[in-house]
Design brief:
FAD/NAD(P)-binding domain; about 550 residues; 2 domains; about 20% strand; alpha+beta; FAD; Flavocytochrome C3, Chain A, domain 1; seven-stranded mixed beta sheet; steroid dehydrogenase activity, acting on the CH-CH group of donors
Length: about 550
């Protein structure tokens, strides 16, 4: 059993700081929510590293919103529902596609400089989108531009305090209500930060896997601390693997954007043969899960560790202008994408599941909200449509703050809960070794293709690490490991429970989608285990 708290503490002996709104995480969700809340609230924005370090920063392709005259919210809705494979919330998707355009215009008002062509916003197309509706910035550096603009607004705002290098250990709850967070300061001291509302915007969990497009900070912290606090966690089996991450000696798993295929790039196996026509009628623009599995199949058939992405037939000037970051990064490793095929392979990219929320971003725990990748709003279903993630963060971030404004002030009284346990043992094995072992377990047993034997074996291996929860933890890397282990267990248990293939979850022993039995969500609740919930997708 995973305990409610990672550490022993006594709130009477810890300094308490009060504020109006706590926001954990500094990606697009956290920064935007902080700006919205600051208009009439005091905000403390907590980031375990720095404001500019988040998954958003590395988002290349862009942000999806209906801007073009020949596009419509209904088209965007249909595309999102198709990609989500029967598990989207129709209501959440309606909110996204109808409120997304205004969110984009708000980003522009806040200083985001999206690319333009002939004086109008430039739009591109990505996989599984029926229309050109992807706005981008500096070619392929959309996330960085959004974070730059929002971070400037946050840093100049007197109502927002930024706490860099602070780590949220756990949520403090009492009688079904979130009171704030227990956190560790850079020097190791702890404090209790109390607020009327706590908003988790802590991002995804790509670091559960050895190969990921996510930065080092993406360790699933938000999902894990919410799970320990009693929040309902939904659909954790659906981990999206991006089909095309750079696979080259000496280079990190750098993301090669979906937009490269949107602009005409084709996939070839190591023999130079184009192969997507054998897997899907949309070829390279098929949904990501299909493209990723097709690539793995070709790698197995040709006994290779990669396939090629070829955009050499497009003009060099267009490629350099549209994808400057990808071009320059590949050049730094000796690859000229205007003349060389790019070696690529799938890598863990995005977590569709997360903390279940309502249409206002609120969890089942009063005063606890989740926004961005850490949340499960119902928008993404079993497979996220490309570039919907940034839109989701803006749309639901605004809704969260509207709901926060309706909350009565928190009653700051004594607690009814005893928070003291009795841990005495310290971790013995180096955390860096444990973390690597965890990542290897997930790649081997809980990756792109799964079956009962693999998942059962993976679960057994993971459970051997459970004694960490009885240890005295004091360092950020120890907390991160405990959170990663929590998320690994959630992903593996839900993947084992879902005996079908749907979206990003593929079971070799149950290769077909089964709507009769499995058109439902899996909720994971700390005191109850797995609970089924019917999908409202229509």
């Amino acid at each position: 059993m995973i305990p409610q708290y990672l550490v022993d503490f006594d709130l009477q002996e810890i300094p308490t700081i009060n504020t109006d709104c706590i926001i954990v995480g500094s990606g697009i969700a956290g920064l935007f929510a902080a700006i919205k809340a600051s208009r009439d609230r005091r905000v403390i924005l907590i980031t375990k590293k720095s404001v500019m370090e988040s998954n958003t920063r590395y988002a290349q392709g862009g942000i999806a919103a209906v801007i073009a005259e020949d596009d419509s919210p209904e088209y965007h809705r249909q595309d999102t529902l198709m990609a989500g494979a029967g598990l989207c919330s129709s209501a959440a998707v309606n909110v996204l596609v109808n409120e997304g355009p205004e969110g984009v215009h708000e980003l522009i008002r806040l200083g985001t400089l999206f690319d333009q062509e002939d004086g109008v916003l430039a739009l591109t197309q990505e996989g599984a989108h029926s229309h050109r509706r992807i706005l981008h910035a500096n070619g392929d550096a959309t996330g960085y531009e959004i974070v730059r603009a929002l971070a400037e607004q946050v840093e100049e705002n007197d109502n927002i305090e930024i706490w860099d290098d602070h780590y949220v250990i756990d949520l403090i709850t009492d009688a079904g209500e979130c009171r704030g967070v227990l956190m560790q300061q850079p020097g190791g001291g702890r404090l209790f930060l109390q607020a009327d509302a706590t908003i988790l915007c802590s991002g995804g969990a790509g670091q559960l896997y050895r190969y990921t497009t996510n930065p080092e900070v993406a360790t699933g912290d938000g999902v894990a601390i919410a799970y320990r606090a009693g929040a309902h966690i939904r659909d954790m089996e659906f981990i999206q693997f991006h089909p095309t991450a750079l696979s080259y000696p000496g280079a990190p798993r750098f993301l090669i954007s979906e937009a490269v295929r949107g602009e005409g790039a084709v996939l070839r196996n190591i023999h130079g043969e184009r192969f997507m026509d054998r897997y899907h009628e949309l070829l390279e623009l098929a949904p990501r899960d299909i493209v990723a599995r097709a690539i793995v199949s070709e790698m197995e058939i040709t006994k290779s560790t990669f396939v090629y992405l070829d955009i050499t037939h497009e003009s060099p000037d267009m490629v350099k202008h549209r994808f400057p970051t990808i071009y320059e990064t590949c050049m730094s490793y000796g690859l000229d994408i205007t003349s060389d095929w790019i070696p690529v392979a799938p890598a863990a990219h995005y977590m569709m599941g997360g903390i279940k929320t309502d249409l206002n971003g609120e969890s089942n725990i009063s005063r606890l909200f989740a926004c961005g990748e850490v949340s499960s709003t119902g928008v993404h279903g079993a497979n996220r449509l490309a570039s919907n993630s940034l839109s989701e963060a803006i749309v639901f971030g605004r809704r969260i703050i509207e709901r926060v404004r309706q909350l009565p002030p928190l009653t700051r009284n004594s607690f009814s809960t005893d928070f003291i346990e009795a841990r005495t043992e310290h971790p013995t094995q180096a955390i860096v070794e444990r973390r690597l072992k965890l990542q290897k377990i997930m790649v081997r047993y809980v990756g792109l293709r799964r079956n009962e034997e693999m998942l059962t074996k993976g679960l057994e291996e993971l459970k051997r690490q459970l004694p960490i929860f009885g240890s005295v933890l004091t360092k950020r890397e120890e907390y991160e490991f405990a959170n990663m282990l929590t998320c690994c267990l959630l992903v593996t248990e839900s993947a084992l429970a879902r005996e079908e293939s749907r979206g990003a979850h593929y079971r070799e022993d149950f290769p077909q989608r089964n709507d009769t039995q499995w058109r439902k969500h899996l909720l994971q609740i700390r005191d109850l285990g797995i609970v089924e919930e019917l999908s409202d997708d229509v």
